[in-house]
Amino acid sequence: MCVDPDWMPYEMIDEQGRHVGMAADYMKVIAQLLSVPIQLVPTKSWMDSLSHVQTGNCEILSLLNKTPQRSTFLDFTTPYMETPIVLVTRNDVTYLNGLSDLSGHTLATTKGYVYTENIKHDYPEIPLVEVDTVREGLNRVSRGEVFAQVGMLFVLVNTIQEGQISNLKISGHTDYMSRMGIGVRKGEPLLLSVLDKAVKTITPQQHINIRQNWTATRFEHGRDYALLWQVVVGFLLITMLIVFWLRQSRREINHRLSIEKKLLEKGLQLNQTLHELSLRNKALEETVLLRENVERITKHDLKGPLNSIIGLPDVLLEDATLDDEKRAMLHTIQSNGYRMLEMINRSLDLYKMEIGEYRVNKVQVPIGYIMRQLISEFGRMAAAKGVDIVTQVEPKNIHLDQVFIYGEELLTYSMFANLLKNAIEAVQQQSGVITVKVMKAAQVVIRIHNPGAVPEEIRSRFFEKYVTAGKSDGSGLGTYSARLISETLGGNIAMQTSEEQGTTITVTLPLPPTYALSDQDHRAPL
Questions:
Q1: Residue 310 and residue 331: Cα distance in Å, rounded?
Q2: Residue 91 predicted with pLDDT over 50
Q3: Is residue 525 pLDDT above 50, yes or no?
Q4: 441 vs 391, 394, 519, CA distance in Å?
Q5: Continuous segment of H or E residues that includes residue 14
Q6: Helix, strand, or coil here: 184?
Q7: Please, are residues 91 and 169 in contact by the beta-carbon 8 Å criterion?
């Protein structure tokens, strides 16, 4: 575990090399729940700790906010601590109604902290002065070099009191809340799951005890400081000035403590709400699991009657009086029955893929044959909407029948059937063109483009389970299964969409180890 070595009252590494503070108390509770010791890796700064987890010198960070940049190398547990982000100025500054009041004024902010990036994005008009530590920023505000300092409430109050900086005060709040949990290095899903469950097990009373242990004494120090100034009133020559100053100070302190009390109460209420939401989420997960189990049982039970449907055409075909058209229809029924049976079997295999137990039987799969079968199957559906399906191959000196991938034929067929069907359904007008572009290089890249755009509300969740939009009968499993299959085959899948350019699904799949297959070798029916 790596920590922030100078971030009290949340955490620090003391002179004896021990991890202390609120986060340290939480990690002790978690270590006791897991019966596993957590080893501290000492660092010199917060930026040093972030570097350590990126290089693999530690597996977890005890307390931090989730950001898009950090999510590139970390996964995150459920947040276990929340605190407001506030502003500190000198005593002669009136109350600030948020960051909007700082336009044109300099603002000190700590490097590497999440709210620094948020302010850069949301308030570009505020000149930022980035400092290495909170203490450095507060000292610069105290000397008048910077107008204000932004940071977490408890950290700012703790640093002001420990440094005995008498000319500073909490002057206002911001719209930001810090929601912090444990960061786990990418590639450790089991560790992430165990820590997340441990965090959710922490009781509301344990939360309250830890916060009171590290915040109540800090505020008491503030009241001792006011009493110290009351002793100074004994100087008779400046009695009137001291009385006036004390009255002003008391008003400011009472106002500050009132704000801090409300913020603390709000934080406790939020923690209780989070605990209730966690319980509801657990119940929802159990409901989803039940639904999935019912679906698997139903699909298994469908296979019995479907086998009877598949066998019936063989009996009818023995009738010598049948003409060629009726025989063709019976063959179509039987062929599609077999395909439906394979699809049911494949949907049952999706569960094995989800839990990592599916074993791929890889062979050379002809992309040209797959595409011809799909265009034939969905040709009537496309024609009904006035949609043309165009196939392109790159480089142009090769034929589509010369392109193979290394995988399973049925998996490949199922994946592209889902994607092509979705592309046809996405064409809103009564005419359009769907382009299937096959590119052969170090890997096989297949792009399916349609002129429609994915609704904005589902773009970030496009490949997640049960995500669908605009289809009353949609299950939300098509793109999810496509992603699962592509990853199982050793490839990947991505989506780009916009109102102007339409939607492109890009599937990348591996080439076979050897690339020699005659034309007749890949004509076996699916």
A1: 10
A2: yes
A3: no
A4: 17, 9, 20
A5: none
A6: strand
A7: yes
The answer to whether 493 and 483 are in contact (CB under 8 A) is yes
Would you say 11 and 40 are in contact if contact means Cβ atoms under 8 Å apart? no
What H or E segment, with its residue span, contains residue 444?
Answer: strand 444-450
Phi, psi of 159 (to 5 degrees): -70, -40
CA distance 221 to 217: 6
493 falls in which pLDDT band (50, 70, 90)? Answer: very high
* CA 516/CA 404 separation, integer angstroms: 9
Token pair 């990418």 in the structure block, residue: 186
Contact 160, 138 (CB under 8 A): yes
Residue 481 contacts residue 417 (beta carbons within 8 Å)? no
pLDDT one-digit tens code per residue, 271-281: 888 888 888 88
* First CA to last CA distance, the chain: 52
Could you tell me which of 93, 117, 119 has the C-alpha nearest to residue 107? Answer: 119
d(CA 59, CA 68): 19
The residue assigned the tokens 């075909």 is 317
231: pLDDT strictly greater than 80: no
Residue whose C-alpha is closest to residue 180's, from 74, 96, 251, 91? 74
State pLDDT tens for residues 321-337: 888 888 888 888 877 77
Nearest to 139, CA basis, from 116, 170, 166: 166
* 126, pLDDT greater than 80: yes
Q: How many CB atoms lie within 10 A of CB 66?
A: 16
Q: What is the pLDDT of residue 232?
A: 39
The residues facing 406 across adjacent strands are: 364
* Residue 520: predicted pLDDT: 39
Between 158 and 236, whose confidence is greater?
A: 158
SS3 at position 490: coil
Beta bridge partners of 492: 508
Q: Can you tell me the distance from the alpha carbon of 132 to that of 152, in angstroms, rounded to the nearest whole number?
A: 15
Taking the C-alpha atoms of residue 365 and residue 399, their distance in angstroms, rounded to an integer, is 15
Q: CB neighbours of 141 closer than 8 A, spacing ≥ 6? A: 88, 89, 90, 108, 147, 148, 149, 168
Q: How many CB atoms lie within 10 A of CB 365?
A: 24
Token couple for 304: 């019995």
Q: Which residues, 6 or more positions from 177, have their beta carbon under 8 angstroms from its beta carbon?
A: 82, 83, 84, 85
pLDDT tier, 237 (very low <50, low <70, confident <90, very high otherwise)? low
What one-character-per-residue DSSP string does 92-107 give?
Answer: TSPPB-SGGGGTTS-E
Q: What is the mean pLDDT of the chain?
A: 82
